[in-house]
């Protein structure tokens, strides 16, 4: 399990997420294959189970690679997020695996925003028409967002096991995201109608909406579970 994790984490460009029932999404994946033919795109076990037909031709690093949990405790975190926040397994698993792989999520299709709504805490909208080089640049920036926020947000998540009131932690994370959004200033220099380009997702900021989440979370091992609770970016590819 850990050896498969170590083998893919270095060359991973993002982790795929889409509505498995959305019509036409298989065609959208063709552009993902073309765009990332020299890098790997991670696919969660539950996504493979739902839509194996989308991946079998391109598995093994062409560009899709099946992801694995590095430690079994994170499987329990996936189940916890799924049940407490009412998201699909593919969403909960995608968020946890993106966190432990320190990777953005690549959200494909129109319906992915609705899938992530229970965990979305902020977003970046674009007022410019993105050319391929612009998209490439901002996908790289989204990668930096996850990397730069990772250690801080994971260490902060560990406070959930110790604080009585998580509101201060939530406020700090909200402010940190507001600062990170300034990276995307180029997307505001246009006059087209604004459309979502990137989402921030953070289960930690949603703890106050679930009375039992903290109680159940504290039954899980702190160090390895916190690794699955980073602030993440989701680049929307539609």
Features:
single chain; 238 residues; alpha/beta; 44% helix
Q: What's the topology here?
A:
Elements: H1 2-9, E1 12-18, H2 25-35, E2 40-43, H3 45-50, E3 64-66, H4 73-85, H5 89-100, E4 105-108, H6 112-116, E5 120-126, H7 132-157, H8 167-180, E6 195-201, H9 213-217, H10 222-226, E7 232-237
Parallel strand pairs: 1-2, 1-4, 2-3, 4-7
Antiparallel strand pairs: 5-6, 6-7
Explained architecture:
With 238 residues, the chain is of the alpha/beta class. The protein contains ten helices and seven strands. It has a seven-stranded mixed beta sheet, with helices on both faces. Helix 4 (73-85) crosses helix 5 and helix 7 (132-157) packs antiparallel against helix 8 (167-180). The model has no long low-confidence stretch (mean pLDDT 93).
Please give a quick description of this structure:
This protein is of the alpha/beta class and 238 residues long. Helices cover 44% and strands 16% of the residues. β1 (12-18), α2 and β2 (40-43) form a beta-alpha-beta unit.
Radius of gyration from CA coordinates: 17 Å
**Category from helices, strands and their pairing:** alpha/beta
Terminal residue distance: 32 Å
What's the mean pLDDT score? 93
């Amino acid at each position: 399990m850990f050896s498969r994790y170590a083998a893919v984490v270095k060359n991973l460009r993002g982790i795929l997420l889409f509505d498995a029932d959305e019509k036409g999404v298989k065609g959208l994946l063709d552009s993902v294959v073309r765009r990332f033919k020299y890098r790997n795109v991670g696919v969660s076990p539950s996504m493979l189970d739902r839509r194996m037909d989308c991946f079998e031709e391109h598995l093994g690093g062409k560009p899709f690679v099946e992801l694995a949990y590095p430690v079994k405790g994170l499987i329990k975190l996936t189940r916890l997020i799924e049940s407490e926040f009412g998201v699909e397994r593919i969403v909960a698993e995608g968020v946890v695996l993106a966190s432990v792989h320190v990777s953005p999520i690549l959200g494909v299709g129109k319906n992915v925003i609705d899938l992530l709504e229970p965990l979305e805490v902020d977003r970046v909208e674009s007022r410019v028409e993105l050319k391929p080089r612009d998209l490439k640049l901002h996908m790289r920036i989204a990668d930096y967002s996850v990397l730069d926020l990772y250690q801080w947000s994971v260490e902060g998540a560990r406070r959930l096991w110790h604080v009585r009131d998580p509101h201060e932690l939530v406020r700090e994370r909200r402010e940190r995201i507001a600062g990170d959004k300034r990276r995307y200033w180029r997307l505001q220099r246009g006059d087209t109608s604004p459309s979502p380009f990137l989402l921030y997702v953070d289960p930690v900021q949603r703890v106050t909406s679930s009375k039992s989440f903290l109680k159940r979370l504290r039954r899980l091992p702190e160090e390895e579970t916190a690794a699955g609770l980073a602030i993440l970016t989701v680049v929307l590819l539609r």
